[in-house]
Amino acid sequence: MTSSRDAGRRDRTVTLLVPALNEISGMRRILPRIRREWVDQILVLDGGSTDGTVEYAVEHGWEVYRQKQVGIRLGYIEAYAQITGDVIVTFSPDGNSIPELLPELIAKIRNEHHDMVIVSRYLEGAKSYDDTWLTRFGNYALTTMINLLFAARYTDALVLFRAYRREIPRKLGLTEVRSARYERWIGRFISWEPQLSIRSAQRKLKVAEIPGDEPRRVEDETKATSFLPTSRIFHFKSGFACLYTIFEEFWRGALAKSRRVIRRLMRIP
To answer: 246 and 196 in contact (C-beta within 8 Å)?
Structure first.
């Protein structure tokens, strides 16, 4: 017999959140493969496109939010109130995310009571074709660091393509803008996926991974790359921002534990 709670989970609505900046080539190739019955809302988060990305989205009936501040993390924060789904799926329109994985991803978070499901590029059976030796090493090193410091078991803690319950970013404190100095030097170079992974591990939320290849970006298919992929990501600044985030989260956790120990000791007669 199906409980009302289980039925409610299967009825969760889904918002596909699509961050984009001058991605008209990818939008034309990738988004027509997304069937409208898979999701309840498609929200394009535009970072200031000038190549027709916004116009293409509007023509196809998708909602568009034009962010005011620079950086995908600040875009997420701005657009958070526009999200109507019970579940958020972040999806890259540049070719890195495979649309045909959406039904499996959505079914897993709806039916198996997970708080977050990650489409891992490094789980057995998956491969990143966009990686170079340097980005592969960087992703491995940062994910390993997160696992060691926060008692997690991720194979891919950084990837954008994932699904999570809408209230999770708010409950984990990710929806607030921080100081101007932080946003200038750190916040605008990093998305909130690393913090989402770290704080989910700290709170012991129920997280799963499914394997999913990462194809090359549509615009890079004919280009040879050996050092860094051609993208709009500032790879070295993003790497530093991610490293800063990991150690900041670890330090905050250590301080919180110390305070709890001190409070317990002070209660001892």
So the answer is: no
pLDDT attached to residue 223:
62
pLDDT level of residue 6 (50, 70, 90 thresholds): low
Q: What is the CATH number of the domain that holds 57?
A: 3.90.550.10
| Beta strands 87-90; 63-66: pairing state | unpaired
Q: Into how many domains does the chain fold?
A: 1
Percentages (nearest 5) of helix, strand, coil residues in the chain: 50, 15, 40
Enclosing domain of residue 104: 12-262
Report in angstroms the alpha-carbon separations of 127 from 39, 161, 211, 233, 256: 26, 14, 8, 20, 38
pLDDT of the residue at 224? 55
| 87 DSSP β-pair partners | 14, 165
pTM: 0.89
